[in-house]
Amino acid sequence: MKISTNNLFGFGIVFLSLFFIQCKNGDKKAETKEKEMNIEQSPKTKIKKEEYGTTSDGEKVAQYTLINENGMEVKIITYGGRITSLKAPDKNDEFENVVLGFDSLEQYTKDNPFFGALIGRFGNRIANGKFTLDGEEYTLAQNDGENHLHGGEKGFDKVVWDAEEAGENSLKLIYISEDMEEGYPGTLETTVVYTLTDDNALEVDYKATTDKTTVVNLTQHAYFNLSADFSETILDHKFEINADEFLPVNETLIPTGELKDVAGTPFDFREAKTVEQHIEEKNEQLERGQGYDHCWVLNEQDSGMRFAASAYHEESGRMLEVHTNEPGIQFYSGNFLDGTLPQADGDGNYGHRSGFCLETQHYPDSPNQEDFPSVVLEPGKTYSSKTSFKFSVK
């Protein structure tokens, strides 16, 4: 049968019309499914937003997902600016979550060890919950025995942050802490920008300003287990810390003021070694922390961003490298995880030393120790701190 060119053209038009209708219907179905799940994706970025829950005070909490071109994924909620999931590749290019967390907002709002949280106004401890600034004494909550810990009863880890997209794969969180909130002077305006880069680094950029002289020391409290198996401990992870000195602590984990040489002690991580190599040794400092819960004095403090620490899990091949412009890093070996907190996947609880923290910061109790680097922020000045958590395979 002979078919004219006009007929062929007509058939082509019909076919293309049906094809585009089908594609459009498929797009609508996908869009409808995402709307049902309350998921939104910005047309300008790779960031997805979804509802996560509502606090007891009626504040809505959102979860944002950042994904880079390699498939690495980070989830962050506006409650406490917490990292709830971070999927990094192993040596077989399998992406698995390597941070400890929960699967519901309710669990995060209960007492928990700061899983994934932004910490402020002051990360770490302040002795006796007191400090003096410009001749005036300020009293803070004593929420860690007789000391003040991580900003108090309602620190930055327990507030809902405002959020806005700040780039293709950057999320900006904003919180205004009112004058005398948790006992701290000055209205503090804080922004934290999380950026997931295409070389598998999660960058955390902190900035803050105040209208009255105050103290500031912000950090990130993610717990990592590079095996991605939270039934395992982190004792077999190899750590390296770029520090010749650390800060010994007293019985309540407040620095004594001494900067102690790490040489010949269990605190010497200048060459990579496993946690289990020394953690059970008879040592006064290890006994006081029930393991590692100390601040290391980082080398090259005038060099800006530089290598601070690394962790390596041989079986999975995962490597985490931390760079920062901060003077110190707190290495915490999960000593107070006691098996009572549920894992996010519902597969058991988080056991003793099932996660570690590498918290970049100024030194603990700095407001009370004149010889430590200053944490004072004055009006007209900007607090600025940056840390990068970079993942690779070895």
From TrEMBL:
Its EC number is 5.1.3.3. SUPFAM superfamilies: Galactose mutarotase-like. It is an enzyme of class 5 (isomerase). It is found in: Cytoplasm. Monomer. This is Aldose 1-epimerase. It comes from the Bacteria. Belongs to the aldose epimerase family. It holds the Pfam family Aldose_epim. It catalyses: alpha-D-glucose = beta-D-glucose. Beta-D-galactose binds at residues 124-125, 221-223, 293. InterPro entries: Aldose_1-epimerase, Aldose_1/G6P_1-epimerase, Gal_mutarotase_sf_dom, Galactose_mutarotase-like, GH-type_carb-bd. GO terms for molecular function: aldose 1-epimerase activity; carbohydrate binding. Its main location: cytoplasm. GO terms for cellular component: cytoplasm. One of its GO terms (biological process) is galactose catabolic process via UDP-galactose, Leloir pathway. The active site is at residues 221, 359. Keywords: Calcium, Carbohydrate metabolism, Cytoplasm, Isomerase, Phosphoprotein. Coiled coil: none annotated. Pathway: Carbohydrate metabolism; hexose metabolism.
